[in-house]
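Please describe what follows:
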Amino acid sequence: MNLIVERLKKDLAYQESFDVTFREVENETHHFWVIFLNFLTKSEGIIDIIYTLDHFTQNKGSCELAKILLNESTTVEDDYQTIYEAILNGNLAILMDDECQAIVSEVKNYPTRGIEEPDSEKVVRGSRDGFTENIATNIGLIRRRIKTGNLKIIKYTIGTISKTIVALVYIEDYVNHKYLNKAIKRLENIKVDELTMSDKALEELVINNSYTPYPLVKYTERPDTFAAHLYQGMFGIMVDTSPSAMLGPVSLFDHMQHAEEFRQTLISGSYLRFIRFIGIVVSFLVVPLWFMLLQYEKFHFSYFGKIFEVDNNHGAIFIQLILMELGIEFIRMASIHTPNALSTSMGIIAGVIIGEMAINMNILSEQVVLLGAISAIGSYITPSYELSLANKIAKLVVIICVFCFGIYGFIASILGLIIYLALLKSFGRPYLYPLIPFNFKAMLQQLFRKPYKNKKTK
């Protein structure tokens, strides 16, 4: 028996793994071994190849056989590791008689789902396709939108065991090579066994600051959003088995943009973006600012109604605020893990009934519930889920500082947060750009959507 076949049987756990197939094909002149994984291959392609082998009677070797195989990608390999990895990636290997070479034929057929619109990035107008877990499908969606040879796609295989395919995608004439080179260097230096959590695990490996709560890359499941950011000079990183792709380098303001803004008129899109910015800021500041003003009667403004008419027990209010913030998080997590048919009912029960009972039993004040709801709504309008989580963590820190040090804690915590964000960098790009360092023109473009104009191709 062919020595390579014997080695492959051992390494692929043949007869221990039921999806590993070693098929013998014999005709009048040759003896073949056809090796593949059942659930990663197309049965039609295998049938065509076996039919060709049955009728191959020429007294010639593997190179001549590879030429007549009707397949889109067929190569002759003599390196054992290459043959082994090709089979694990869903390809088919053919070994002929006692030859040391193998014919590798691409018959991959990865399990995948349809390209539905992502739930977290829905738009009123626009395309309804989204990334899937198949990196080949995702690259095809990008190629459909960027039809130029300047679109570069660099392939990496990361993980000594998982052999996960990673693609670095960018447009040559648009990308900033200063930031791109850092990404390339970090990808090349990754040495791990597996990438089970795919893009999230990869994010921790390619960014320098793994412990910051603020996201230093932007995630998207929309191919149009991905392509638009490539034209803005970013690069993207796709990971096989993940339906989301990373974009970098990013600033804090990039996380606040949404595809809906580009699907409306210039004025409407700018309006949506501007009020989204305001909503995010209000959701972050409204609770700690109210808690801080509550301690100083001279700051109680009558035109805010009864917002300050609450029993001013400093410790009790602090506990209520913490309970409110944690309660909202409990509801959010419960809604994620609740089946769609029951999630609406669960939200009504948790948000309305429990909230009303908490007020009636004097566990929470009406003002705390109102401000907590306003803050929650603001966090849900944040396009980036990672940014909304980071803001919630930062908000809790500010509330604790206000509880301990009053107005001085509020000012110090806000200044400390701004300084911290100003020191963050995404692949070398300042995280608060264009606010810090300040660029007036770029800042206007972040606050208001700029119009499309006729321009020369770069």
